[in-house]
Amino acid sequence: MPRKVLLITADQWRGDALGFLGHPAARTPTLDALAADGVAFTRHFTPSAPCGPARATLLTGLYPFIHRSVRNGAPLDARHANLALEARRAGLDPVLFGYTDSSADPRAMAPEDPRLRSFEGVLPGFRLEASLNESQLTGWLTELAKKGYELPEAPFRIYAQAGSPPVMARFSRGPAIYAAEDGDTAYIADRFLDFIRLRRREDWFAHVVFLRPHPPMIAPAPYNDAVSVADLPPVRRMSSREEEAGSHPFLAEWLNEQAHPDYFESQVDVHAVPEEDRAAMRAVYFGLIAEVDAQLGRIVARLKASGEWDETLVIFTADHGEMLGDHWCWGKGGWFDPAFHIPLIVRDPEAPRGARGRRVGALTESVDILPTVLGWIGREAPRDASGASLAPWLRGETPPRWRAAATWEFDFRNPATRRYERALGIGPEECVLGVWREARWKYVHFPSLPPRLYDLEADPGELRDLASAPEMAGVVARCAGRLLSHRMLHAERSFADALLTERGVVCGAEPRATPEGLYAAP
């Protein structure tokens, strides 16, 4: 029987923004049905952000402190294995629809190679079938031109309402200048559907990447008005932006960075517009989610009609989340859950019927996807992979031991601007934070800035920092120790497990050590 893999990622999709999880503004009937026919992992996190680092982590299966592509534009070392290259070794031809935001390794390239001028490159191993990202809109714009659209001189201005200025004093949720059936989301779905049209009896491996609900907050009709502001849940934040900024020096500077129309690609300063405008932006975000879900519905319908649905491993996830006004923040970064909690739904066509519709609350991470996919196509994951296969959960089992915490890091150094270095008076290596997130406790560690500690049971919105409370000293010390142990246990070990002896090279093959407390019963 043919074996097919469909790995779908959306960009900037919050982990709570799903209808079956009860979100009042999420219109996701296709994903709700997929969750009912597969397994939904409801506490799934990315170990890194923004786009480039998150996708490097997802596709290499390595934590960011191993692959070190920690910022958009930070090169990804060519020596690392990845999902596409490993799939090729299994005899598949991985094709890409969209983008991977992979920054090329410059060491084997000429200084003038154009791939060194953008972080929006293609991960080695993928064959690009259709490109669409923030700087590569040519394929989609060509289709629009063929359909008779009058295109703007600046390509990215396609994301604007007719007649709108480059910078607006107020946000408008008017429709895009293109119809939904001609939009960027439909374009990617169309190209994938064209690809599979004549491949009914073939194996294939497709990575389908949607740009949305990534900003700008411009949606075609009817999705611009699909969600009412009245359906939005309240944002979780302190009483004022000033109070939030005063709670931590990093947060103060991040909020300063956001006070510019270019930051969120929204044509407005998100902190200067009235509250009603920010609510309208949030509503359009959920309209874009509804648009992606509708195009996913077309894909599912075609796979079912062709009989390929029961031959295809289907995975839906995102690179990272979106703050969407929580803590007065927009975009992705920092340490708060909304930026790192992402959706994950997996449908294994070979899973027993009794496992369908399962919701797994164990802590999972995007590094788990590589070993899951490789196992399904019959290939072992590289021995240095950071994650664990989700196959037992997909079969309806519960592993006897599983991770007790999710971890992530956010690197905010910038070799080009030195923004945070100058504002905070710290060096580049100090511009990083690490998170240890258990079911109850969440600890945030900085090399030089104050730590944070939250009791997620009592304070799910992460509004009360407990790190300086004397009675919390033991919790802080324990979490800091676990975070240190986690990094030590997952350090790269390619040659650390090798030894030159009289008999030649001896390599260890043992699995990674997991001391009591780091992994526990889920």
UniProtKB/TrEMBL annotation:
SUPFAM superfamilies per record: Alkaline phosphatase-like
GO MF annotation terms: metal ion binding; sulfuric ester hydrolase activity
Domain Sulfatase N-terminal: 4-378
GO cellular component, one term: cytoplasm
Keywords assigned by UniProt, alphabetized: Hydrolase, Metal-binding
Cited Pfam families: Sulfatase (PF00884)
Protein name: Arylsulfatase A
Source organism (scientific name): Rubrimonas cliftonensis
